[in-house]
Write a structure and sequence with these properties.
Layout: H1 2-15, H2 19-29, E1 33-34, H3 35-42, H4 46-58, E2 62-67, E3 70-75, H5 79-107
Antiparallel strand pairs: 1-3, 2-3
Length: 108
């Protein structure tokens, strides 16, 4: 059972391992959107957005619900928002540490 959980975690993080997929998730944190809306917000090609949405959908990170001729995408779990916030905090901490080291080196 423990190994299955580790595989699930690894697959989940693989699904997040692309800058455009992260940006798509950040956009969807603000609410459900169709491909055209996501594309417009990101300033990215529709095919690239569609490809990355397919990866996220296959890994059950987002869901798509048909609405007429459009598909509306949403996060499958609201905790993804918290995960993105924590990831940014970790990045900020690393940045602060790097700046501190540079200042220390500069002052030597």
């Amino acid at each position: 059972m423990y190994q299955e959980i580790q595989h699930f975690k690894a697959d989940f993080f693989k699904a997040l391992a692309h800058p455009l997929r992260i940006r798509i998730l950040e956009v969807l944190v603000d609410g459900d959107k169709n491909v055209n809306e996501i594309q417009m917000i990101l300033g990215s090609e529709g095919s690239a957005v569609s490809q990355q949405l397919a990866v996220l959908r296959n890994k059950n990170v987002v869901r798509g619900i048909k609405d007429g001729t459009s598909v509306i995408y949403s996060l499958t779990d609201p905790l993804i928002k918290d995960l993105l916030i924590v990831a940014k905090q970790i990045f900020d901490n690393h940045l602060v540490n790097a700046i501190s080291m540079l200042e220390h080196i500069k002052n030597q």
